[in-house]
Amino acid sequence: MTATASDLDRVMDDLGDAARDAARILARAPAEARSRALVAASAAIRADAPAILAANGRDMEAAGELSKSMRDRLMLNEARVEAMARGLEDIAALPDPVGRVLAEWERPNGLKIQRVAVPIGVIGIIYESRPNVTADAAGLCLKSGNAAILRGGSESFHSSGAIMAALTRGIEAAGLPRAAVQMVPTTDRAAVGRMLTMTGKIDVIVPRGGRSLIERVINESRVPLFQHLEGLCHTYVDGAADPAMARDLVLNAKMRRTGICGATETLLIDRAAKAQVPGLVKALLDAGCAVRGDETVQAADDRVEPAAEADWRTEYLDAVIAAKMVDGVDGALDHINRYGSAHTDCIVTENKDAAEAFLSGCDSAICLWNASTQFADGGEFGMGAEIGIATGKLHARGPVGIEQLCTFKYVVRGSGQVRPG
């Protein structure tokens, strides 16, 4: 769909008004109805798998200029479609986050006060490439009683549309408003700008994509954000690291899937672990990963390229890693605090004191000890799925799941109390 500016404004306003109406219904809908919608949507995705894969084929055919990592994010197969369906069932099975009593107390005057979890309202999700985000975002918003407006990337337009058709059938089968989840029906980039100004209609924006998209959202949005600029993740191999564990963790953290935000981009090695450098570097190179290193890392293998200052600030999303030596935990933390994106960082060590020093000193949303950075994922955290990884410090931080898509209100019950003058 293409539209004039006035047409686009009308379309976006209609989406916002419908979402706001749906949010009021969802906030009062029984938990059972929201879960039933997710189970029905899961079944619809399985039934529509051939149509979804055919739509994805159209997107893949038009994706010739995308990088290898971006094509991997875009591509769907039977296993990934099944994972979407199963993810919706997992979300449906989670405890209802709405109505949880977060705290309660009674005042001396007899007032009984509760802090109660409630939906945020309308969530706007702007994302690129990954069509599975369509299902994940819809599922998380529905389970948490929120309406959603989805704006997927133009490269995944057909895939997301096919997934959206299945989701809508599930929502309507449960008796919930079809506007509970809506997709922006245009690839026009102006729709993103319009979403960013829809105060009063959208309560929070969640951006998922490359640096240029995220920077645009941060610079232009008048709507509050769950911010995630990039995943510049680090793995630090301490002097007390087990060599076999370090090798396995570094390989997995970098190479399992290079195009995800939890992939390690920089390898830091304690000078006390210098003996491990040749083995770590060889394992990475033999696995097909280019290594850009400082002088010590370069000396370990002729195939290592010199690292430039820009490499410490680069989210490659590809089979490339930067590597350097540091002076213990403090040196690792100094590097991470200077160059990192506050996403996910790991220490590999058998020294508990070193691990605790790292975990307490690392100011990232996710801090790991002896575990791959690729565990930075809501599903792996037991959240069913995630709508993104928030790297800001307000409200939501780390994987944004159903609990993070709730805010709270205070419920005060009295027996006729008046405040004395």
Describe what this molecule looks like in 3D.
This protein is α/β, with parallel strands linked by helices. The protein has two domains: 235 residues, Aldehyde Dehydrogenase, Chain A, domain 1; 143 residues, Aldehyde Dehydrogenase, Chain A, domain 2 (3-Layer(aba) Sandwich). 41% of the residues lie in helices and 19% in strands. It is built from 14 helices and 16 strands. Strands 10-9-11-8-7-12-13 form a seven-stranded parallel sheet. The chain has a four-stranded parallel sheet with strand order 5-4-3-6, sandwiched between helices. A three-stranded antiparallel sheet has the order 1-2-16, with no helix packed on it. Strand 1 and strand 2 form a beta hairpin. Helix 2 packs antiparallel against helix 5, helix 2 packs across helix 7 and helix 13 packs parallel to helix 14. The longest helix is centred in the N-terminal third of the chain and has 24 residues. The chain is globular. The N and C termini lie far apart (62 Å). The relative contact order is 0.14. The model has no long low-confidence stretch (mean pLDDT 94).
Keywords, please?
421 residues, Aldehyde Dehydrogenase, Chain A, domain 1, Aldehyde Dehydrogenase, Chain A, domain 2, 2 domains, 14 helices, 16 strands
